[in-house]
Amino acid sequence: MKPATAQQPDLQVERLTSGTANLTAVLTIEASCFPAAWQYPDAEDFYAEALRDPCNLNLGLKVGQAIVGYLLATPYDAALTWVRDADPDMAGNDAQPYYVDTIAVLPEWNGRGGATALMRKLEREAVERGMGSLAIHARSSNGLNALVRRLAGDRLIRTRWLDNWSWADGEPYEYIEWNCDR
User: Fold this and answer.
1) How far is CA 137 from the centre of its chain?
2) Is residue 169 pLDDT above 80, yes or no?
3) In this structure, are residues 102 and 138 in contact, taking their beta carbons and an 8 Å threshold?
4) Residue 137's beta-bridge partner residues?
């Protein structure tokens, strides 16, 4: 499906569940959006389990029936099991926010409001689940940290700069945590 050029596309965000079509779309997005070194070596198993886990929030950005973006948020304590070594300062957070593990929009759909739509839907879903805050390690080179800061506005709880984050081949990232209940 080609992006609309004359007008803004009709972007919809909905929960994704397990299934071959959703998994295939998520894997395509992962491969299209992230350098090979950043992709999970067991991506198919990882995302199949992520889509099955009812504790996760799996959101798909859709244009018509095509999934053109994906967001995975996990409970904070689950994220700690694999992020703690890369960012030990995450340990000891009593707030236990949902952690945004992955957010990606196919390159041909960038700049059309997809990431914003995914994040806004995540905030609503988290509140529905009784979660008051969200956290992310946001890439700076693609402007994700600026987008998250703009969306959070005066609801920021804490931020922390990581100059040389090991998970991103030493690229700078920003840890951002914010309230999602208004």
Assistant:
1) 9
2) no
3) no
4) 175
Q: Which two tokens stand for residue 102?
A: 């992955």
- CA 12, CA 18: separation in Å to the nearest integer? 19
Residues in the chain: 182
List the beta bridge partners of residue 159: 176
Residue 94 C-beta-side C-alpha neighbours within 13 Å: 0
Per cent of the chain over pLDDT 70 is 90
Return the ∠ at Cα 159 (arms to 11 and 57), rounded to 5°. Answer: 40
- Give the pLDDT band (50/70/90) at residue 132: confident
Residue 48: which of 30, 75, 68 has the closest Cα? 30
3-state secondary structure the chain: CCCCCCCCCCEEEEECCCCHHHHHHHHHHHHHHCCHHHCCCCHHHHHHHHHHCCCCEEEEEEECCEEEEEEEEEEHHHHHHHHCCCCHHHCCCCCCCEEEEEEEECHHHCCCCHHHHHHHHHHHHHHHCCCCEEEEEEECCCCHHHHHHHHHHHHEEEEEEECCCHHHCCCCEEEEEEECCC
